[in-house]
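Methods: example folding runs. The two proteins below were folded one after another, and each record is reproduced exactly as written to the output file, sequence line first and structure-token line second.
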Amino acid sequence: MSTMSGTRQAAGSSPIPLTPPGLPEAEGPDGAPLHIALVAPPYYEVPPSGYGGVEAVLADLADALVARGHRVTLLGVGRPGTGARFVAVSDTPAAARLGEPFPEVVHALAVRRAIEALHAADPVDVIHDHTFAGALNAPAFARLGIPPVITVHGSVDSELADYYREIGDSAALVAISDRQRALAPDLNWVARVHNALRPADWPFESAKGDYALFLGRFSPDKGPDLAIRAAHAAGVPLVLAAKCSEPGERRYLEQTVRPLLGPDDTLVGEADAGTKRRLLAGARCLLFPVRWEEPFGMVLIEALACGTPVVALRAGAVPEIVTHGVTGMIADDPAELPAALHRVTALDPRDCRRDAETRFGVERLAAGYEQAYRAVLARRAPVGAGGRA
């Protein structure tokens, strides 16, 4: 394990009042700067060079919290890339093993040791974990007097909800959408904080190309087959830029997606950061025909930041992010998607960009999480030396 300084330029931000639904006003401690330990998953560096929505959010959150005057230690893998102090839990990201449980568990154990050492040398006020297995550390951190806050990035289906019920009140949970929170209202939620981005990092383009864009990963849940069928029915060229590294994704591509491709479809594979921005900025729309309870969908706000409207199925948090008839078209049935692909061209790209700037900027992200941290700190009982009452 090595400790290194961050290198990513921390952008300044202005505090924006924000009280997400269900988040109580913090009664203390006061507005003193906090020492926040952010925990990243073991699969990609922060920020990621391509795929990695959680890591992208973490990079922006780390820099925004630093800009607000907090001391931030980011525990992750690979190299530093933000303005936060960086602790490398592992030198090598485990991207090739994404989806396997073992890297998550090993990472959680290494994070526990790293935070125990960090806290002994430089007391930590709050731990903010963005991993799945990290919840298993919550009781140990609570015994140290450090309140754990966990952002739930997955869909709280019955199995995942049961997992967090077993964690109980040893960790405060943050939802990334109202829909996610509503699916398991009995969990120990402390806040809802939408994911966010820096709109200035995303190129705005008012003159759009003629293609629709599918961007994400090759999975039945994401609906690339629905995207292809809708584009064919509408007579609209389709570009598919999707992650395809896991065995299930490769199998789905070969067995389901590739046989559907036609002469007007372009398969570009997984897009790096630059390619993603170019494709999003030039598309007539992002096509997002998800079949599952998508808890947020980072690509939705990335498209809006580029001035690109969304055509999506009504599922998960889609109606919470996309305003029907303003920043996109929401269909209730896949049969409605071809018509939506034509109607979406009447929407104004400037409305999409404005919505991203107003609702999904990093200032709101940082303000929401800061309120969550202070609310959790205010609730806990006084602890001994090294903790903050």
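Second run, written to the same file directly after the first:
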Amino acid sequence: MEPVPTSFHVGPLVFHTYGFGLAIAAYVAYLYARHRLVKAGISVTPFGKFTAVIIVAGLVGARLAHVATNWSYYQSNPSQVFSLWHGGLASFGGIALALPFGLWAKKHWWPDVRLLAFTDALVPALVAGWALGRVLGPQFMVNGGGHATHQWFGLRYAGQVGKRVPVPLIQALEDGALWLVLLRMERSTRVEQAPGTVTGVALVVWGLVRALDEHLLLGQESGSGSVGVQIAGLAMALGGLVILVSVARKLQKAELIH
């Protein structure tokens, strides 16, 4: 099978499939998140501005982290710093910068909404958007595959020699499964009484799985930031565990009072 196309032409215009796919995934996630906020009884009036802040901060953080962890290359090729169509968005760099901006925006536009109730409404939409984004984004970028493989499931990616482990598709399946688990959890009465449970579980599972993917499927293929990604994944899982412990203690205290 030939490498997946990384760009397509519409008349004189050239569109890079990677960015186009991510834009579609982001829009779908936006609509789904908006729907979930309405369902949770949270105002969506400022949600457009909130989303713009998150997207800009996430893109800037993701690119800065990628460039920083591959500085030896970009120092010699400064013209490639802004070549996003070649890939190079570090997930955790985006999260690291989007998180403080998101917390500020939430406090500014929804000061009366409990933080964990707000994140519980958003996180499943983010996970679903991430699953779709893996298929429509990295799957169509240069160097999008993982380790070389001769197995039947291997695919060819532009910029890489031979068949590669289709990491974007594997991660899409992982994130899709996590999304279904979170939706199933929401049906539990106990979870409804414990805001933060959905957020905590999502952080633990996503962080651990992302770290394992990096270690087992990508490794040196992802550049000098590989170890950093694994550490960041474990840190995310630890943060989710802290949230779950806090939620469990509050729920236990409430049960003792009753």
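Comment on the second run: The mean pLDDT is 86.
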